[in-house]
Amino acid sequence: MAKDPYKYFRVEARELLDGLAQGILQLEKEAPARQVVARLLRLAHTLKGAARVVKQPGIAELAHTVEGILTTHREASGPLSMEQGSELLRLLDEMNFHLSTLESETDVAAEGLARPPAEGQVETLRVEVLLRTGTEMGVQLVAVRKGLGGADHLRNLTSLLLDLLAARPAENGAGASPDRVRARSIAEELRSGIENFHKSLGVDLARVDGALAEMRDVAHRLRLIPAHTVFPSLERSVRDAAQTLGKRVVFEASGGEVHLDVNVLESLRDALLHVVRNAVAHGLETEAERVAAGKSPAGQVRLEVERRGSLVVFVCRDDGRGIDVEAVRKAAVARGLVPASEAKSLPAEKIIALLHEGGLTTSNDVTELSGRGIGLDVVRAITSRLKGEISIRSDLGRGSTVEVRVPIHIASVSGLVVEAAGVLAAIPLDAVRRTLRVRDSEVVRSADRDSILHEGNVIPFLPLDRMLRRSGSAGRNHGGAWSAVVVQAGDLCVAVGVDRLLGTSNIVMRALPSAVEASPVVLGASLDAEGTPQLVLDPAGLVAAAERGRGAVADAPAPGRAPVLVIDDSLTTRMLEQSILESAGYEVELAVSAEDALTKARDRRYSLFIVDVEMPGMDGFEFVAQTRSDLGLRDIPAILVTSRNAVEDRRRGEQVGAQAYIVKSEFDQGHLLQTIRTLVG
Fold it and tell me: pLDDT confidence of 172, banded at 50, 70, 90?
């Protein structure tokens, strides 16, 4: 495989060009500070030198030209002129074009791809491989730690041997024989060696565990980038559109600290480019029109990014003329979207909703920026692919708002970690107002809900275990007091009771699989080093559940039902099955191997085994067969969940004693739950 001589240059050059673009747009808007121009000169000079090192004279000369223009502006007292800004941005575009031609020389994959995948895709793939490797290593470490328990058995045997070899006076009065003394010495040395091995291996395992957890966290964060990384390209798009149309426009953006999956943000950038261009082309008036309407000469386009529960929302607002409802009405009739007779009676919001239809435009002329009606088509297509939604609002004469909402696939969250009924969960820190201790005597109980007095206000109080519908949790004794977290969503505050507060943590949250019907209080999940999910809670869901009060737990399962043991070496399957079962009210425990499951099954009573067939070591068939031959386990039903669909496999499942056989390719959540209810209620 040929070495890529431009691998690092491409990365550095893109960063330098982005920095230059941001700085040039800043210089166009305001009088330059000396340090701003000096920073841009350093960026241009660094780019020129790097280009010469990798023998790219074209880029080097263009960077040198940028240096020259910026040098003349070093002592300027006013902003860059539009002509200077345009020339500098043109030079950056030309360098970007040269940069795009420096393709990797990596050999084309055997699948016959015409060219190597984009660098971002390659990096994402590397991160996914790193995550998968880390998860599997975590699972293997669990197995090693279980095996470490065997050292305890050896240590006990050695102690027993030492007792047997203890020096005792012989019947004839003589002392212990030399052989017995030597054997005891060897046994003592053996016990000391086992203890040192056990201690050393335990320390090493803990160290590797910590390193794996750190690696997983770093790998997750590599997939997350802040939203502000797309702001420069959006501002550049607004600037170019305004210049083309002869309008004055100010672009502002906020919420750039929200982190998103790199692939999601890249797709959204393309959609948002069309949104901000539409705002300039269709929404904002010319300078003369704005002055005549009593507005400021320069129009405003503002982009706000925020996280709302399980969604990331991009809101683009302009202060322009708003949507011409009558023009949209006529265009919709002309395109045959609605009959003329119906169009007359449609309210404004229904007419605006027609803009979601493909190819609808109110522009009379076709330009580079408008007139074909495809801008919103692109936005709608991208949003739909990300399983999101788009909405449009307008206030005639005051502006329009386009809102793009997409689910959070993966996000970085600062959270307060709590424990309730044995479940670890994180509450987003930006929704936490206070933590406190609440005595039972301070809880005011009514027929509808419980409440406490907080800072002079009565707010609802509800234990988290009841929100999560954890079985067997209702009667736990909290020593007369709860730990409570005051959570705010919107204008409402509630107190959430928990068993313990475990501190704050920066976690990487993933959205739950679409097949999972999670509790409304669950926002997503993070994974620990062993691949076990930790819930991330939705502040709005917590507030809604506490506001509903006792009705929120009316359908909680009866206490005392034995838990279900899920046995699978696949992280994805374990997480999916656990989420499905817990959302249905079952208590769930997990095992990563059949051997691990047998140990758990002999330590605790379960109501059901859900078993994968293909696992390292003992497979699912053998696990079920062993439980059927064990008097203490034989009456616990077992369901085999496997990708194997052959008739002989199904027959073998029946022969070993499984009560049900579910094929993963035909997996249906409803069928699984119905099967479980049939077996255990």
Answer: very low
